[in-house]
Amino acid sequence: MNRIALSHTIAATFLLLALPATSAHAQASRTWVSGVGDDVNPCSRTAPCKTFAGAISKTALNGEINCLDPGGFGSVTIVKSITIDCHEIFGSVLFSGTNGINIPFNSFAATDTRKTVRLRNLNLNGVDTGLVGIRISGGSTITGGVVIIEDTLIDGVFAGSASGILDDRTGGGELYVSNTTVRNTGTFGIAYNPGAAGQRLDIALDNVRVQNSANIGILIGNNGRAMINRAVVTGNAQIGVGASGSAAASEINLSNSVVSNNGLGVGNLNGTVTVRLSNNDISFNATAFSGVTQSHVNNRIQGNSALGPAPTPIGSTSNPTGLQ
Amino acid sequence: MRYAMPIFRPRYNSIWLGAAMLVGTTLATTAQYVPNRPTDPNQRQVVLVHQDTSDCSGRDVPNTDSPSVRGTIWATRLFDGNTSVKVAMTAKPNTVYHVSLKCVRQIGDIKTDDEGVGNLSLVFPTDLVGAEYSFELAPDAASAGSRYQSAQISFK
Question: What ipTM was estimated for this complex?
Answer without folding.
Answer: 0.78
